[in-house]
Design brief:
The structure is a homodimer of 477-residue chains. By secondary structure, the first copy, chain A, is an alpha/beta fold. Chain A is built from 17 helices and 21 strands. Chain A has a seven-stranded antiparallel sheet with strand order 15-14-1-5-3-19-20. In chain A, strands 7-6-11-10-9-8 form a six-stranded parallel sheet.
């Protein structure tokens, strides 16, 4: 299969204006001030909305966007005509016309379990360059990391039963459907219903039948026969259009007819009702007909908590099709009422600037817990025990000696050049699976448990206190 | 301003495979069966997640997609090579190669308040044509209707204070950011931070400063001065980077300096902390400095409930920048713990087929409340009282005489030809505002109140009972 034509998918060439307005006004003010000194910004997630870990995802799209970001003549003409950034200066127009990212990007590879406040992306470059793609970076990282994490939780809950992404119809538009398919595959689903995601990312496509196909024929039985005739090797019959139990009996009839033609009915799908009770009854109907090999798939408002409940109660379900709560990352625990906002609190913050060759670490202050930032350019080191299990992470300043541990922030782009091979989504899924198995069990629970130990190096801790003590540069002039 | 180049924005020409896998397998089975009889399908929303109404949105993108849907040679080659739909038959390949929607679309215009179970889109055509774009239709209608509705609730809560869309960075990818800007403008925001949405939909762009701009300079005061120098007519200063109260005092200094140059500081923005207390303190600091004209804007984890609380307590806030909970449509009431899934339960269901010139209404049955569907092709009639206020809606079968009321489903496409002028988003915002003012107050509450009366015509009611009584066509063969 050919590599995906990503530029067609993402249309980066027309997306330079996917930017918040203030990125442009700040850039204009920086140009006016002749301020384009080198600075560093970090992407990190302030808190984990559910459970105790995140699976990093989205880097490939972000880096592809940054490296291909160009302002077209049409963009520039529109910016001038609309006076979007005040009267755009010639210097600013020339800056945008010649824009080509020339800085450095270090990042934690996709598929890696990560924790709150760890820098996941570290970008260094001229101050305008580093800022102008912030909105895109945040949107894509926040969304894909949310979905990869959510899916990883569902996979854990399913304890070996397969899960599929059925979410495109409830995803927030086209990109959300496509990126949710990608991120959920990294998180562990076996396939997606969304064909274009299958095409672009080489993910297996899956699907059954819609109610329409059945309503569109004189009877359910005729519809089942029609489908089985067309797809004798891959028929999964949707049995809840009229009455699930009668639907199961019709599926048995068709299954037995397929046997006489030396085919096997693959499965039936439940899409509504009490999935525990119905799966048990349908299993018994199938078994009585000698169709013990026919699998039961279930869909309909599923999430990790519902899957966990069904599996714990030994529902005879071999596969789950997960829609709304996978593709939106619904951060909501129906058991406790916790959560409720389907977004990750990921931010991209300035941590350091260079002023006449002097490196000046900076931080945002806040009285709100978790809203101040860690100053300075940083590296994250992960320590493992003798069995390869994660023991703890330490965040150190960039120029500190490593003192062991695996450095998570990896070189991706150096002086504007890609120096990293992006793994395929299959490789990323394998990586996420292996890495997650190294996270000690207490940190893998569905509910909020013990936080994984992440500490700051003494020097970073000292820098933070020092900046706090020295006061805030509110009026240092 | 030129009309937006929507094809560039949406890239429909490459999006034919934005389809769930089963749309293709069912189409292949229909081709094998030589079943391409005329049928009708309806888009409707099963229940309203928050409050008592929905604002319809998304139609323009859906119709544009349907009318431009083409399968490229590359799409067809990939489908064949990957054996996605089994061995694709020549007939099916030819069908897809020649695909051009030739059916009829009726829809409720965007910006109209609508209610649960009312058909919002009615599509009639050959059965495969009607099905193949289902995934796109659902994704875009569900999302934009969710966001237009959510925003309309925020606008009501703000009681005249202006609201802006600041959500792109937490939106679920690129389309979500762009479509949220569009839908939230229909719902009533005064502008968006997302520049590309401003460009494509002619929405005013707004923005202030990021913390980065302030951290990137020796002091907050210097940063404020730099920004005010570049944008003397439109400066809104972000004052919470280090300390909000000191930030307000610095803003006063800069505001007084601007006065000496005959300019006026437009506003300050609070982005964290106790917004009620801080807005009061900052107002008092500004007023003491004689800067009574400087406005206070607030942002940070806002939704309609928080805005309602702030306005009810008379917080001196003139404008709200709303991010995460606008762009994700967070269906969650933090006061009651209700909700939690950021998606609309909108579905697209088969309601009628034509079998040898006989019109056969169909329905999906379900024992679950609200999961069975209304059979037959239908029209929605809205009745107003003498003052123009909405009184009630009646859903009738398509061929019933109207008996008064305004028919909501409007001709959009006839035999594949667009017969409708899509209003601009400004017209849609005006329409939504006027229409919503006609909905009686009890149905406009933020919390779940009395449902607006929507009844079925006696003939539709009779058809539904009759189909239920006659039993389900599970094995009519």
């Amino acid at each position: 299969m050919n590599p995906p034509p990503k530029s067609a998918l993402l249309s980066e060439s027309q997306m330079a204006l996917f930017a918040d307005y203030y990125e442009l006004t700040m850039a204009q003010a920086d140009i006016n001030d002749e301020n384009n000194a080198v600075c560093t910004a970090n992407y990190f997630v302030r808190s984990i909305p559910q459970g105790n870990y995140l699976i990093a995802a989205g880097l490939e799209q972000v880096v592809h966007y940054i490296l291909n970001l160009r302002f077209t003549d049409a963009d520039l003409k529109w910016l001038r005509d609309s006076q979007m950034a005040g009267d755009m200066s010639d210097d600013f127009a020339n800056y945008l016309r010649g824009f080509k990212f020339g800085g450095d990007i270090y990042a934690v590879p996709e598929g890696t379990p990560v924790f709150a406040n760890e820098p996941l992306i570290n970008i260094t470059g001229p101050t305008i360059d580093v800022q102008i793609f912030e909105t895109y970076l945040l949107s894509v990282m926040n969304f894909q990391t949310l979905i990869a994490t959510k899916t990883s939780r569902m996979i854990r809950a399913a304890r070996g039963a397969v899960c599929y992404d059925f979410g495109a119809r409830r995803a927030h538009g086209r990109d959300a459907g496509i990126l949710a398919a990608r991120a959920s595959f990294i998180g562990g689903v076996a396939g997606t219903s969304l064909v274009i995601a299958g095409r672009y990312f080489d993910i297996p496509c899956v699907g059954t039948i819609a109610h329409k196909f059945i309503q569109d024929r004189p009877s359910e039985l005729e519809a089942f026969r029609a489908y089985a005739k067309s797809f004798p090797n891959n028929t999964v019959l949707l049995i809840d259009t009229y009455d699930t139990i009668q639907g199961a009996k019709n599926a048995c009839l068709v299954g037995k007819e397929m046997e006489t033609r030396s085919y096997r009915l693959r499965g039936v799908r439940l899409d509504s009702g009490d999935l525990l009770r119905l799966s048990q009854e349908v299993r018994s109907i199938l078994d009585s007909a000698g169709l013990t090999y026919v699998q039961i798939f279930a869909s309909g408002d599923l999430d990790e908590f519902e899957i966990d409940r069904l599996i714990a109660q030994k529902a005879p379900i071999e596969g789950f099709g997960i829609g709304t709560r996978l593709a939106t990352g619904a951060n909501f625990n129906p058991l406790t009422g916790e959560g409720g906002v389907s977004a990750l609190p990921g931010v991209y913050k300035h941590v350091e600037r260079v002023d006449e060759h002097r490196v000046i670490p900076t931080m945002k202050f806040s009285d709100e817990l978790g809203k101040s930032t860690l100053p300075g350019r940083k590296q994250v080191y992960r320590f493992h025990d003798a069995h390869g299990r994660y023991e703890r992470d330490v965040i150190r300043l960039w120029d500190e000696p490593s003192q062991g541990g695996e450095a998570l922030l990896t070189p991706i782009v150096r002086q504007g050049k890609l120096v990293y091979r992006f793994p395929s989504v299959k490789e990323l899924q394998a990586k996420a699976t292996v890495e997650l198995s190294r996270l000690p069990v207490p940190h893998r629970k569905l509910t909020r448990g013990e936080a994984f130990p992440v500490t700051l190096s003494p020097r970073l801790e000292k820098l933070r206190s020092q900046l706090s003590r020295e006061g805030r540069p509110v009026s240092k002039n």
